[in-house]
Design brief:
Layout: E1 2-7, H1 11-22, E2 27-33, H2 36-43, E3 50-53, H3 63-73, E4 78-83, H4 88-97, E5 101-104, H5 109-120, E6 125-126, H6 128-141, H7 153-163, H8 168-175, H9 179-193, H10 198-207
Parallel strand pairs: 1-2, 1-3, 3-4, 4-5, 5-6
Helix pairs in contact: 7-9, 8-9, 9-10
């Protein structure tokens, strides 16, 4: 049974998410909270495996500072951000602060449950929509990529495994990297090669002789 806690300063939405997750046979809602302070107090006494966290609450602590506090004081809690904020910079800040996953509130019920199970299994989770936003930001603000920027040794290893059709989870297991780190390598390689998707990245790499 996965012990799940939720933090959101909108009571109706909070109750709705609780109802959705309570319908899952393998999940138990340990508590729902309107403030970061209430959550931190509860975590001292209540075991929580996965925390669904809205970054932007009506009171402090909130945002990346709340993520850092939880990671420092309760390192066993897996943090899954569930927010309406689709700004790529805020996504990066939350992930860099230690969040284990990021979802937008328009997520479907099945995907939400999948995300909870994924982070519970000590993996990272980014919804397809979040991945797309992060990639779009790379295309708009990156160097454009010419294929002449030298790949690091690790990037070359990741690229080779991508060409072998390995998933990010499989690559992470083989190279002893987290899922999020592998996804970061994917984005970096795409930027360096000037590709807009995985297929284009592999084609460009073959053209440049980086892989066979």
């Amino acid at each position: 049974m996965i012990n799940v806690a939720l933090v959101d300063d909108h009571p109706l939405l909070l109750n709705g998410i609780c109802n959705v997750l309570q319908a899952e046979d393998d999940m138990f809602i340990t508590g729902s909270y309107l403030t970061g302070t209430a959550l931190l107090d509860a975590l001292k006494h209540q075991p929580v495996d996965v925390l669904l966290l809205d970054l932007y609450l009506a009171s402090d602590p909130q945002g990346k500072e709340l993520v850092k506090l939880i990671r420092r004081s309760f390192p066993r809690v897996r943090i899954l951000v569930l927010t309406s904020n689709d700004n790529a910079l805020n996504m990066r800040m939350a992930l860099n602060a230690g969040a284990h996953g990021y979802l937008l509130k328009n997520v479907e019920q099945e995907l939400l449950a999948e995300a909870v199970r994924t982070v519970y299994q000590n993996q990272e989770y980014l919804s397809p929509e979040v991945k797309n936003i992060l990639l779009q930001t790379v295309w708009k603000t990156g160097s454009g990529g010419t294929g002449t920027e030298k790949l690091t040794k690790r990037e070359s290893e990741v690229l080779k495994l991508i060409a072998e059709e390995k998933t990010s989870h499989e690559i992470g297991a083989l190279l002893h990297l987290s899922y999020r780190t592998v996804e970061t390598y994917r984005i970096g390689i795409m930027q360096k090669l000037g590709a807009k998707n995985m297929v284009g990245m592999v084609k460009k790499a073959i053209t440049l002789g980086l892989i066979q």
